[in-house]
């Protein structure tokens, strides 16, 4: 298939890639201590600021030459052209023959973005308006349950992109949420997830939002069926379904088969990937929590970052810089993971959200041309909010044997100011980045009067890279900007690696095999057990235990 990527040279034969290889050999041992002392302006120079986000990338193991070559790599990889292809609705998701247009979900009313000759922006706003109308009715109490009581509880049922975005956004924006509404999120097919979510809820006051792009996902459909049984066991009348269930999906046929009136369905389109869908109707639970106005501010934030990504020169482009640094550490330093460490309690689910965004997008070993890559692709993303992580795994980042680039995220203001807490929080995040970069030498340790034998244990080599992202305060608008920042960083990485960041074939095999095993666990008669001996044994043991 002809693609922009197919026309560019293979990654490892690009000039900039080869130059980066040579350059890496020259600077691999350069210490951040020396880079900083040789260049007093570095900490101010290697920064970028746009749309209310400040990025300090000076504590990375880069020189001006590294950055020049990385930008050249982006150019040689056709990043500009590929970005335009995405924003103009070309079918860059070649394995599914789909456009990739999450950017259309936050395009302002009146914008034009065409897919197959049709402007999709009016459809986006039509759904947003219906969502707003519904959200207002639920939030005001005008939408009543079957017995006339107002809705007090909202349970989102979904998994993957139909869960992680909603739950992350709910937690991130809790400060802005309507506090007399309770929100729960059910994703796992493990019945405990559902049971615990509804244990203290009154069915008469509960609304289920069944969120599934395909409306066929095993976990979501199993949970949705259990939710229906739970509701009907309390309210008995089938008509209650219309008052207590709404659906968010691209699949109207399956929605009505399930028994939900399509009048209570909020749609989106096949050009929205699951992990890129939190700003589509999949964000209905978010809108119910924070209200339509805040939801629109979230979308405006996304859009501002989209525009920055599309138009800013690569040297000053936040997502491009982040994406290129990831490529630098992954492919040249051999870093296997990247930590995302938000110093903001409300962002506690942000690392989990990013795991799907980054790893489902770029965890691939096949190029757009169908060849096996001969370089590493997505690192493993992980993280926890600060300062908790400091008292758990930071030891390994500081003194372990692996290089773990870190993204710190901090805010100038707390949404819950309390005494000296925020100064302490921020002192910690700045201190961590400083300690990682500069460490502590044996001389410094000795000068503190440390016993000779203890010195090696107390030395910090330093030279551990990090980015520091700082914004004023966590608002819906800033959350949109942060998410879009990582979306476009992931896109930048995918373009360099020449992979399709928008399919997820790697999740299919496990799903298929599970479908095959389900009846083997449930059937009365002994199954054929045509698996390998380990799987057969596990099935037999489970059947026996089940009785
Ligand atoms: O299994 C992976 C996946 O397809 C994700 O990409 C997606 O976000 C999730 O499942 C849920 O899919 P759906 O929204 O169709 O239920």
From TrEMBL:
GO biological process, one term: glycolytic process
Location (main, coarse): cytoplasm
Entry keyword set: Cytoplasm, Gluconeogenesis, Glycolysis, Isomerase
Chemical reaction(s) catalysed: alpha-D-glucose 6-phosphate = beta-D-fructose 6-phosphate
InterPro entries: G6P_Isomerase, G6P_Isomerase_C, Phosphoglucose_isomerase_CS, SIS_dom_sf, SIS_PGI_1, SIS_PGI_2
A GO cellular-component term linked to this record: cytosol
Protein name as annotated: Glucose-6-phosphate isomerase
Organism: Occallatibacter riparius
